[in-house]
Specification:
4-stranded antiparallel beta sheet, Translation, Eukaryotic Peptide Chain Release Factor Subunit 1, Chain A, 60s Ribosomal Protein L30, Chain: A, alpha+beta, single chain, 5-stranded mixed beta sheet, 383 residues, Nucleotidyltransferase, domain 5
């Protein structure tokens, strides 16, 4: 999960109300069930010490929930009588109580939002491409990337004489220009957005021509799908399935790659590696609470690795108002210049620091060999 969307939560002081609520409405008494859920949220926040104005802001937001009940859950974060972030969830949250704490309790988001990447889909033909942005919850038309019109297009007969070659050559050159335009637009949008994956669909020859013109770094995150069309009203069911499979594979490969880098780069659990015995590429690894806390404080973390319900993730750390003011012990926080250190969950504090430095977080499923204690990091550079 990319963490950029969380930055507004860390740009203002707490305390924070954090609410994870199921919005499924599949039963006849769904409205009554939802009212009970909302009352439980209010009770939990009041019992935790939340102020009345912030509780009211949360309840007003929940009251305007869409009737459809899709997506299956929502997460709300409020402070100072204002809901700062309301984000949909891919998985219904089960048994997560509403909390009132110095930091927003954002750690469950990594598991509940799902790890499906934002995807840029290009529907390609000889005239250009329609562009669409997809993520786990939305589709958004992004306009078109069209080539130059040429007078040779249309239902014109091609003379069987010496001019035929010139005609066909102009058609080919026109398409090559169009493919160049589409490739440049895709590369631009990839670098200027949170898009992680590009899907090319449409005419096979044209989409292959576009792929060949993409920069190598863009080709690495681009796949082709054979069941899409630019024609209005074309069925998308097979394409939707292909895109879902491509997104799942992308997320799985990303996690496996991060874990490979972590396993190669780590030292003994909880300790830093002063030197590397082998060349581990662009980053080393940190494992265990002291090492990961030190890494996020130095803005070294490229990828934070968490195991759900891990022992280390729920431990307390000491923090100050600055995003890099996090320490394992109170005295360490005071040594950083924090006059009044406060306790916070380790996972929330580490996510705050990682978000500030442009990192990401990946969840390591139960049963997969990951960091000891459920907490680790792949670093941007060696320790």
């Amino acid at each position: 999960m990319e963490l950029g969307f969380l930055k507004p939560l860390f740009a203002r002081p707490g305390p924070w109300a954090s609410v994870y609520i199921e919005t499924t409405r599949a039963t006849e008494d769904a409205q009554k069930v939802q009212q009970l859920r909302e009352r439980a949220v209010a009770s939990q926040l009041i019992e935790a010490g939340a102020d009345a104005y912030t509780v009211r802001a949360v309840m007003d937001k929940l009251a305007h929930e869409p009737v459809s009940g899709a997506p299956p859950g929502r997460a709300l974060f409020a402070a100072g009588a204002e809901v700062v972030l309301d984000t949909p969830l891919s998985v219904p949250p089960a048994g997560i109580p509403a909390t009132w704490s110095i930091l927003p309790h954002v750690a469950p988001l990594a598991d509940l939002r799902g790890d499906r990447p934002a995807c840029l889909v290009a529907y390609i033909d000889r005239m250009g491409a329609d562009l669409e942005l997809r993520d786990a919850h939305h589709r958004e038309a992004l306009g078109q990337a069209n080539g130059k019109e040429w007078q040779g297009r249309g239902h014109r007969s091609i003379p069987a004489d010496r001019y035929e070659w010139h005609y066909r050559n102009k058609v080919e050159n026109s398409w090559n220009e169009t493919a160049d335009i589409i490739a440049r637009e895709l590369a631009r949008r990839l670098s200027e957005s949170n898009t992680e994956l590009i899907v090319l669909t449409g005419d096979p020859r044209e989409r292959r021509a576009v792929f060949n013109r993409l920069p190598e770094r863009v080709q690495a995150v681009t796949v082709e799908a054979g069941n899409g069309s630019r024609s209005p009203g074309a069925s998308t069911s097979l394409l939707d399935r292909q895109i879902a499979e491509a997104c799942e594979k992308f997320a799985r490969d990303r996690l496996e790659s991060a874990l490979d880098r972590f396993r190669v780069g780590r030292g003994r659990p909880g300790e830093h590696r002063e030197t590397a015995a082998v060349d581990t590429g662009p980053g080393e690894a940190a494992e265990g609470m002291p090492a990961v806390v030190d890494a996020v404080r130095k803005h070294q973390v490229a990828t934070l690795l968490l195991t759900p319900d891990a022992a280390d993730a729920g431990r307390e750390v000491w923090i100050g108002p600055g995003v890099d003011q996090v320490a394992v012990q109170r005295g360490q926080a005071q040594a950083m210049g924090v006059a009044k250190p406060e306790r916070a969950r380790a996972d929330d504090a580490l996510l705050r620091s990682a978000a500030a430095s442009g990192g990401e977080v990946l969840m390591v499923p139960e049963g997969m060999h990951g960091p000891a204690g459920g907490l680790g990091a792949v670093l941007r550079w060696s320790m």
